[in-house]
Each structure stands twice: as structure tokens, then as C-alpha cells.
Amino acid sequence: VSDQKPLGCWSVKHGQMITCPVVCNFETHEYVAVHDDKVLRIWKDEDVNLDKVFKATLSADVYRIHSLPHGEPLVLFKGGGVRTLDVLLEAPQQEIENFISDEVIKWSEAFLEGQEPILIFATEKDGDYFIYIHKFKLNILHKYKLEQEESSNPLSFTAYIKNQIITLLCLYSNDSVYKFLIPLQQHGEEEEQILSKSLLLKLSVSGSVLKGTSFAVLDKDHVAVLGSLTAFGEESKECLTIWNTKFQTLQTSKELPLGTSGQLWCYGEKFFFTHGKVLTVIIYKCETSSLAAAVGKLKDSQTSDVSFLNWNTLSDEELVVSLQSQQSVTLKSESKMTLRSRRSSVAKVPTDALTAGQLLLDIKDSSSAAVEEKLKQLLSKAQMPDVQATIGCVIPALINRCKTDPVFYPQNFLVQLIQKQELSYSLCPDLMAVALEKKDMHLLQICLQRFPDIPEEMTYACLKLFLSISDDYLERTDVNLDSVISYIDIESNNKGVKNEMVENGFNTELEEDSCDTIFTKETPLKNDGEFCPVGPQKAALLNAVLHSAYSETFLLPHLKDLPAQQAVLFLRYLHYLYVKSSEKINTSLPGVLSPTINQIMDWMCLLLDAHFTVMVMLPEAKGLLSSLHKFVRAQVRFYSELNKIEGSLQELQRLKCQKETQAYSIEVLELI
Asked: GO CC annotation: what is one (predicted)?
């Protein structure tokens, strides 16, 4: 999600429609989908065309498939019948019972209680709502009827299991959340029971009412509700809100001006919801609920009992991080960090917990050296929790200071931070942009090597900068040469003396090509690929670019904007790497983080795709293309010869495995 790269895409034919959410079968690492209600499809990552994957037509319409972490997926049919996926695949046309012919399923969820799968689903008929619980071990189906609420209906459901009791929460249209308790210890099928409800939460505060559309349980004292917050005489605003059910208070809210789809998902302490046309991911952390926190909230609507770390999805003013389990941090509209302990003497915060909050204030006006010293002290705490979250809050503050103050730039600390911590581009998206502006080659090199999610636009910007800067300038900069020091011979590069070289058994000079002789005398010696066309510093930086992950679809449009002379220089370097990597039988370059043969080949193909017409027209590129063509042809012929004896080599391997050789032996093997 963070680097906006599609990892896989599959589509059904025109006229077909996927009718329930696709799930992953964790047991087999396969995807399971249903289209047109009855057609089951199963495939893996490497599959490309859905028409060619496993297909089964079922005898009844499917409502939803539920995937469990350590068990077979559960298939719920619209008639209330349930099957595990493996049982269903044994006989796809098996008859499925219909328990709810006149009822419509509104919601369902699956759980693992111990080792037993349990499926719960809600249905509606003529304004009445029913809950079904299916126990798989005993194959028992329990049915309950929800106690009616006058002039109000359930809009959304969620549930969790604790101590053999299902807690069902329902969000009603009267802006309230009700709770139903369902024991799991019942044995045998009993008559329909009526579940009595209890009011858990009223979604109103200070004259404002939240018209919720979906919600999620965060812990025993907190729920998150997505909906429209409406105040008398004001226009409604879509918001994500978090409520304390223990003290009936609104803990925090985030306005979503671009609108949402009304759906909210919560997995692993992260919220997922659509905001406008993008998927928004927000990390949250709930504190232990306390009366002091609730009272503080009532006194000051800005103080939050639940904290967020936003991954570059909303505005900078909403970037708030939880520093300790008993500490609350909030961000005022003017983007000032305020600790609750300063506003209320009721909530006591440990002294050492104030360091990070105070540091955010110090970053605004302290010197670079002073900030670096305090940052090192903060991150040196061995017991400090939420290190990633703290860094995610500190780095944006540093970057904002760098943007507004040209003199301020804690380069040493930023380099050490990236080297020691597992960071990503999405956690500090403006860092590389500032490094580009400062022409900080060392920092850019480390980011390219360590960040797994750099956007292609930023990768291209780094490539263009590296190619445009002269080798003389780079010699005065601090660049890590570990990836090039083992294979670049600077001395022979400067001498210009050509030594005969044989790659994998073939000398490209001996290959005949009518078009090659035209350029032999005119082409400079470095076009042969034997001498590095760039200095070691630039080579190390280009290696970092080759190491960065990318999607061809997104990178190719940017590469087309690369100036022709820079494209030729880059292709010369790639040609040099290609020749170097082919000298050894294992086709790998020595050194740390050196480019692999696959990376070299992929980038050469990308560059030629982006600039082929320009390369053909440029006189200085003709010799390069000719030399590259000869070398590739030599490689193809060499591997072609290897393919001819592949069968004999496999037979030798088989014979060798069959014989038990002693410590010393002489064998004569004859190839026919």
C-alpha cells in the first residue's frame, strides 16, 4: 500500500461479477473467490489468467467465504448452510440445506474458539433480526431473535468471543450501540430464544450526534465509529471517531473531508478505510482507560485518550504518536504538541516520558548539534517502547525544520538513524526530497539501499541527479564504495590499454558480424565494456539505484524523460557491469550490495525500451549498441552449446549418484 505498487491483478470476463470478497486460504496460500454467486475460483500468485485456474460450479448461492488463520476457509451460503472448503471441493454439486428461505443475511463473521471453528451470522425478515451460531464440532445451529428497538434498526454488527461468551455489538439507526451476550456453553438445538439488549454507548456529545455507518471494537473499553457528525445548524462532516464505552466519552475524532465509502476495517492495531479515492491506513494505540483521562477529555476537547500515527495519509497536523502506555499526546490545530500533564494535575506522567514531547518543541528552535545530541539520548533508551512510532513523529519535525531553515541539517544523525533502524519511505516521505535538494549523496545512497518502498518517481530523480553530477564533484563527497571496490579497476580504466578478454569461453572479437566492422575504428575504447565509464563514487550511487525495488509500469514513463546523453552513459555502465558479471561462471559481482545479473539485465531492457529510437539515431551510441549486440550474441551461442550437452551432463549426474566412490578413485566417463 505504501509504495502504490500492484503486486498482482486478476479479472473475470466481461459480464461476470465477483459476488463476495476474495479471501486467502492460509493453509494452501491460495486465493478463493466466487463470481456470479455459484462459480468458485481458486488460484495462486503465479497464476495470471483466471480462465485457466481451478473452477467449480456449486449447487447453491454463496453469501461469503471466511478465512481462518489455522484452518480451512468456511463457506456460508445464502440459505444458511455452511461447509468447510475442503468438504465442498470433494463434491461441489452436493446439496446444501436451506435454513432461512425467507430471511436475508445481513452480516457474518467466523472465529476460532480453541480449535473449534464458530460461525455467527445475522439475518432480517419483515423488520425482525435473528442471530445464528453454527458450531462445527457438534454440527449444531443455534437461533436467536434480537429484542426489538422501537422505530430503530441495526445498521452494522461486530462481535468477539471471551470466556466462552459471544459479545455481539450492534450499531442502531437511533445513534446508539447496543450489546448482546450469547453463551457458548449451550448443548443441543433449543427453541428460538430472544436476546435482551443493553445500551453500551450513545453517540452524542455537546449537542452533536454521530450518524454511524460502521464500527469496530478496539479493546474492552474503546470502539471506533465511522460516520457523519452532525451539529444543530451546521453541515454534517464525515469523521472517524473513537469512544470510551466505560465512561461514555468521545476520546478523539478525525475529520475526513474527502468522504468515505462508509466501511471501516480494523486489523492488527491499524484502521483501513477509503478516504476519497485512496485507501487510508492509520495506526492506533489505546491506553488503559482511566477516570482521569475521561475527565480530562471533558475539560479539554483537544486532549486524546487514544493516539494515532498516520502513514502519510492525512495532514501533518494529525500526526500524533503514543509515547508510552500511560502517556497521551495530542496535536492542536496550530500543530503544537501538548502533554496532558501540563493541563491537568490529575494525570501524572513519568518524567522520562516527556523527553520525546519536549524534543519536538526543541527541534523548532535549537541548533543542529543540540538537536542531534538530544535525539541520540532519546533513541539510546533500551527500554523505550514504540521506537518506530517515535521516529515517525520526530523525523517529520526534523524535515519541516530543514525546509524552513536552510542552515539546519542534522545529516550525521539522519544517516545513523537510517542505518540503525528499520525505516521505510512511507514513514518519512519528505526525507529523500530534502536530501535531493541538499545533494546529500551519502544519505540518498543509504535510503535507496534500505527503503523497501521508494516510489518510482523518486528513484528516477535520484538516477538523474547521480548521472548529472561530475565525477570530480563526487570525489569530494562521502560515498560508500563497498559495492564497487572489488571489481572496478581505476588504474586500467585510466590507461586505456585493451587486454584481450574471454567471457565464458567466447571472445566477442572473434564473432563475425557484418555491421560491426563499420564502427570498430571510430568507437572509443570504453564502449567495449571492459573499462568503467564512470568513477567509483558514481558507480556506487548507480548501484544503489539498481538495488532499489520498482514496478516497470510506473518507472518506464519517467525513464523516457532521461536526457539522451545521460541515458547513453547509464547504458555504458550497465554494459560494463554485464561484461564484468559474465566473466565468472556464477555471473555474480563481488562486494556488498553489488548488482545481480538479473537487476543489470532488467535495467538494460528498461533503458532500451525507453530510449531505443534515440539510441539508434545518436552517433555516439551506435558503437555501444554494436558492442552490446556482439556480447549478447556470444552469450546466446555459448548457452546454446551448453544446452546441446545438457542431456549428457544430467546422465553423468545420475550415474555419479548411483555409484559409491571410495576416498580415492579414477573414473573414465565417455560422452557419446
From this structure: nucleolus
Beta bridge partners of 588: 596
Q: Rounded to the nearest 10 degrees, what angle do helices 456-468 and 441-450 cross at?
A: 140
Query: What is the C-alpha separation between 591 and 583, in angstroms, rounded?
Result: 15
Binned at pLDDT 50, 70 and 90, residue 444 comes out as: very high
At 561 the three-state DSSP class reads: coil
Residue 21 has pLDDT above 90, yes or no: yes
- Cα angle, residue 296 at apex, residues 204 and 203 outer, rounded to 5°: 10
Residue 622 has pLDDT above 70, yes or no: yes
Domain over 203-285 is classified CATH 1.10.150: no
Looking at this protein, which amino acid is placed at residue 446? I
Beta carbons within 8 Å of 495's beta carbon, 6+ residues apart: none
Q: What is the pLDDT of residue 18?
A: 94
Residues 6+ apart with CB under 8 A from 600: 546, 574, 577, 578, 581
Q: How many Cβ atoms from other residues are within 10 Å of residue 594's Cβ? A: 23
Rounded to whole angstroms, the Cα distance separating 245 from 243 reads 6
Rounded to an integer, what distance in angstroms lies between the CA atom of residue 583 and that of residue 506?
10
Looking at the chain, which residues constitute the CATH 2.40.10 domain(s)?
Answer: 203-285
- Res. 335: pLDDT tops 90: no
C-alpha–C-alpha distance, residues 92 and 56, integer Å: 6
**DSSP type of residue 509:** G
Backbone angles phi, psi at 162, to 5 degrees: -150, 130
Strands 278-286 and 270-275, how do they pair? antiparallel
Task: Decide: helix, strand or coil at residue 131.
Answer: strand
Q: Is 183 left (phi over 0), alpha (psi -120 to 50) or beta?
A: beta
Reported as type and span, the H/E element at residue 211 is: strand 208-219
CB 538 within 8 A of CB 579: no
Minimum mean pLDDT among 112-121, 133-142, 305-314, 534-543: which range?
A: 305-314
What does the CA dihedral 477, 481, 487, 489 come to, rounded to 10 degrees?
A: 30
pLDDT digits (tens, 9 = 90+) for 636-655: 888 888 888 877 777 777 76
> Is there a contact between 222 and 243 (Cβ–Cβ < 8 Å)?
yes
Global pTM reads: 0.54
| Residue burial 524-544, b: 16+ Cβ < 10 Å; e: rest | eebbbbbbbbbbbbbbbbbbb
- The dihedral built from the CA positions of residue 56, 57, 60 and 61, taken in this order, carries a sign that is positive
